[in-house]
């Protein structure tokens, strides 16, 4: 008779391996929907399609978070799933927001004023939005091949950090701005230049080696369910009542956190250097 200690752990059924991939497929479907809505906004001139595209990108984030968690919970993580997840992120958080950023921020500029200058701004905007996509893809590639990444500005040892802004967060920043304005496209060329600089900066944050809090040390299985329910309620209710303000506040706060952590680390390092002299 085989002892209990000698029994091999039960392998998950083959059908269970499909479950995480279904969430990844949902991620791709939402990204495809966001691209189609952005194109529909240009063809019809209806800004509501831009808003739907932005909401779709934000809605894809739970799919991206759940596929990996479900794979770990069901012990069905695989190399195929990891590669599919990366490809899904490139589509949903790379291609979709870059198209949205260009069409919303530059393509809808009115045909008035200095048309040559308008065309040059549109061309530069097209390049910057493409650069955003390249930065996001590079960020994913670096994440996939790096075993233990170390940021330029190390944080607390009891916390886990991303090196560079994650591509879902960068896409969320773009989507939150569009949604905050209800999809109404930019119609001022000087504001378009500000948008161009902002998109370029977010792209830079993805390929930077600055630290961004990952929150992976939070274990939702621990603690009291009642407290967790209250926290979820406090987080969900503002999203339904004031989704525009809530999303852009969260997105910009996360962006400012990365900038502030880098600046504060450099300032503290200079102070320690001066004190040692």
Structure characterization notes:
The protein has 277 residues and is mainly α. It contains eight helices and two strands; from the N terminus they run H-H-H-H-E-H-H-E-H-H. The protein has a two-stranded antiparallel ribbon. The termini are far apart. The N terminus is likely disordered.
Any idea how many domains? 1
What is the number of E strands? 2
Quaternary status: single chain
What structural class do helix, strand and pairing data support? mainly alpha
Alpha-carbon distance between the termini? 72 Å
Number of alpha- plus pi-helical segments: 8
Strand order of the largest sheet: 1-2
The helix content, as a percent range, equals: over 70%
Question: Which residues form runs of ≥5 with pLDDT under 50?
Answer: 1-6
Order of helices and strands: HHHHEHHEHH
Gross geometry: globular
**Radius of gyration of CA atoms, rounded to a whole number:** 21 Å
What is the mean pLDDT? Answer: 83
């Amino acid at each position: 008779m085989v002892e209990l200690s000698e029994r091999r752990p039960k392998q998950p059924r083959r059908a269970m391996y499909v479950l995480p991939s279904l969430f990844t497929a949902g991620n791709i479907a939402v990204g495809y929907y966001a691209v189609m809505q952005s194109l529909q906004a240009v063809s019809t001139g209806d800004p509501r399609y831009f808003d739907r595209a932005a909401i779709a990108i934000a809605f894809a984030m739970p799919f991206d978070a759940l596929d990996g968690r479900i794979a770990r919970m069901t012990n069905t993580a695989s190399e195929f799933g990891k590669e599919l997840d990366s490809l899904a992120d490139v589509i949903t958080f790379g291609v979709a927001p870059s198209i949205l950023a260009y069409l919303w921020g530059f393509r809808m500029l009115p045909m008035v004023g200095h048309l040559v200058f308008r065309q040059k701004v549109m061309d530069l905007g097209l390049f910057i939005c493409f650069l955003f996509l390249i930065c996001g893809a590079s960020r994913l590639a670096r994440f996939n091949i790096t075993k233990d990444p170390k940021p330029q500005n190390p944080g607390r040892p009891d916390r886990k950090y991303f090196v560079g802004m994650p591509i879902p967060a960068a896409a969320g920043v773009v989507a939150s701005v569009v949604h905050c304005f209800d999809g109404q496209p930019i119609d001022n060329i000087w504001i378009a230049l500000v948008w161009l600089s902002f998109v370029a900066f977010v792209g830079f944050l993805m390929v930077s080696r600055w630290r961004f809090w990952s929150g992976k040390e939070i274990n939702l299985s621990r603690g009291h369910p009642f407290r967790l329910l209250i926290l979820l309620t406090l987080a969900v209710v503002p999203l339904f009542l004031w989704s525009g303000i809530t999303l852009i506040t969260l997105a910009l706060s996360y962006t400012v956190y990365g900038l502030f952590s880098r600046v504060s680390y450099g300032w503290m390092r200079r102070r320690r250097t001066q004190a040692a002299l």
